[in-house]
Prior knowledge:
Layout: H1 4-13, H2 23-31, H3 41-44, E1 63-64, E2 68-81, E3 87-93, E4 99-105, E5 109-116, E6 124-127, E7 148-153, E8 160-166, H4 172-177, E9 181-187, H5 189-192, E10 202-210, E11 230-233, E12 236-237, E13 240-245, E14 247-254, E15 261-265, E16 271-276, E17 279-287, E18 290-292, E19 297-303, E20 312-317, H6 324-327, E21 329-338, E22 360-368, E23 377-379, E24 391-393, E25 398-405, E26 412-416, E27 421-426, E28 429-430, E29 441-444, E30 449-455, E31 461-466, H7 470-474, E32 478-483
Parallel strand pairs: 2-5, 4-9, 10-14, 13-21, 22-25, 24-32
Antiparallel strand pairs: 1-2, 2-3, 5-7, 6-8, 8-9, 10-11, 11-12, 14-19, 15-18, 15-20, 16-17, 16-19, 20-21, 22-23, 25-30, 26-29, 26-31, 27-28, 27-30, 31-32
Helix pairs in contact: 1-2
Family: Belongs to the multicopper oxidase family.
Protein name: Multicopper oxidase CueO
Pfam family, one: Cu-oxidase_3
Amino acid sequence: MFTRRHAIRLGLTAGAVGAVGSAGALAETLAAVPPARAATPAAAGVAQFSVPLTVPPRLRPYRSTATTDYYAVTASRVFREILPGTRTEVLAYNGSFPGPTVRARSGRRAVVRQTNALDTPVSVHLHGGANPMESDGGAMDTIAPGATKTYVYDNRQPAATLWTHDHAHHMEAEHVYRGLSGLYLLGDRDEDALGLPSGEFDVPLMVRDARFDDQGAMVYAMGDAENRSTILVNGRPWPRMRVKARKYRFRMVNSANLRVFVLCLSDGGEIVQIGADGGLLEAPVSTQVLVLSPGERADFVIDFSRYAPGTQLLLQNLIGPGPTDQVGSVMRFDVGDPAPDRSTVPATLAAYPALPEPTVERSFTLRMDEPGTGHMAYINEKTFDPDRIDTTIAWGTTEVWTVTNTSETIPHNFHTHLVQFRILERDGQPVPPAEAGRKDTVFLFPGQSVRLQLTFDSHRGVFPYHCHMIDHSAMGMMAQMEIV
């Protein structure tokens, strides 16, 4: 496994380090990773890479017309095997942990009937989707226990890796942690024509962490990043995946509440990033490091044909918190025999129009009580108030938002509902190509600042923006914008 020294050296040389700011910032973060400590009891009994990777089941429509697919989803409390030989109570969509995957098409409507079979309210947000207020899944637009709500997604946006998760305020953090999330993969003809790896070679990866007690029960405590040291991929602890010696496309979602992942292959090999939150990049980006804060997505290709059959290749995480023998590993790829491969990664992936001229500038600060001083979190020094509109925006306008993390020790990120944005600058410097695509979530180390450009030309109404380190959102780091 890479040591911390290897990680720092990789961070100082890899071109993708700009995704977290300066190389110095990454080096400081890695250097601050706490030393290894004893494993938690339940995780101590799990042999890493002993379970195979599984892929969430595809959710099939119960009805389809010429324009629309209809789906039915129920949120309920079930028991599932996460740690081998142990059944753990989770919250699940249609009994699946994580939830089943919707594969939708751009320009084709999806209608999803969501039923709440839990004893607490829920709200289903399609993260990254441009949907009207009544189908956004806002913090206060909840489904009561025993009730049903229908969400309508017109899918009028480019192909992208999106995901659904609970958003009921003050409950969202625990609900998501216990399992209420799932993939929503949007495709289109332009993406199909590129010849990227597809079918069984197009693999979703929902990566997160969890804490288990000595009976295998999932433990939730607000802000408990240090103890959530069991790494799960598609709901499986440190899984292994058998791959053929050819190219694979991976669609990764960081569905953790708080953990930031800085990912690399154990041999320092090339990863080709082709997409971010809002879809494909303009061109592929060769990197050794992927950085994903909670809610962010990365679409990337690994070519396993460069490895001999029998090679065991780790996907590693370079930063804590937590015991390095646990949080430093994510999953293992076991390379098999070569296979025919007609897939390609074209030099041009997507055409991006010129950015419109902005007419409004705004500033936002993110801050929360430092450790030991409280449990409140703020945007512009205010905690969330559902009866308050914090920002009023004229429909059709383009704005530039400067977002600054003023916390002294705590990282944050920033997520906007309804709109994808473009990151113009990070700490006054141009962003690297991996961050230059369509985004809806951006990561900020303490003291960092970003400038974002957003155009509000899809829907009118009231929508939230918030920190997607979702425990922070539940503590109050959320506000509301109204597009009029």
